[in-house]
Amino acid sequence: MYTFIVNLAKMLLRGIGEIEIKNKNIIPSEGSYIVTCTHKGWLDVVILGICLPHPIHFMAKQELFKNKIVASFLSKINAFPVNRENPSPSSIKVPIKLLKSGEVVGIFPSGTRTVEDVSLKRGAVTIANLAQVPIIPAAYEGPSDLKGFLKLRKATIIFGEPFYVKTSSKEELVTFTELLSNKTNHLHSQIREHK
User: Could you give the CA distance from residue 131 to residue 152 in angstroms, rounded to a whole number?
Assistant: First the structure.
């Protein structure tokens, strides 16, 4: 199902507009990693899936899984639920298990769809630290939905250099979260400079 949806999205989106991918050479050809990205709407999730050479297992808010049909579809496209308001130990056990088995996990550290800059939650750096895999920051600039894409006909995604999180300190996790935020903001600046 995942491959079918990705191929369908590629044909649809590239048939009606342009998806610009910057620094794709940064993405490892093998091995597990976390990719983080800004989150404005459902379209950035789809475009991120199109751009990466490996299937992504996305963290998604648990409210999306209340409907059985929707939950079944999300599971088939590699999404798994997480309680954003009250994270449980399973919130990190599932992605760590995936990463240790060689999979790629996608996390939106802002924890919500937004057009404003918000402080990043530290889940991504916590998971990266425990799983000892790199984080690849990414930034998305473009429409939040298909209607916007039809109007603008362009979306850009840029990837930053991978980095590891190695610490036993909660205070340093906050510092690494700030580092991720700064790297993400820098990527946004790079996109805007070349518009």
Answer: 39
- Express each pLDDT in 56-74 by its tens digit: 999 888 888 888 898 898 8
For the chain, give every domain's residue range: 2-193
106: β partners: 35, 58
Tell me how far apart the alpha carbons of residues 101 and 4 are, in angstroms, rounded to a whole number.
23
Q: Which residues of 168-194 are buried (b: 16+ CB within 10 A; e: fewer)?
A: eeeeebeebbebbbebbeebbebbeee
CATH annotation of 2-193: 3.40.1130.10
Q: Which residues contact 39 (CB under 8 A, 6 or more apart)?
A: 45, 108, 110, 112, 113, 114, 140
Burial of 119 (0-12, 13-18, 19+ CB in 10 A): exposed
Entry field: residues in the chain: 195
- The answer to whether residue 115 scores a pLDDT higher than 80 is no
Structure confidence at residue 39 (pLDDT): 84
Do residues 21 and 51 lie in contact, with contact meaning Cβ atoms separated by under 8 Å?
A: yes
Whether the pTM exceeds 0.70: the reply is yes
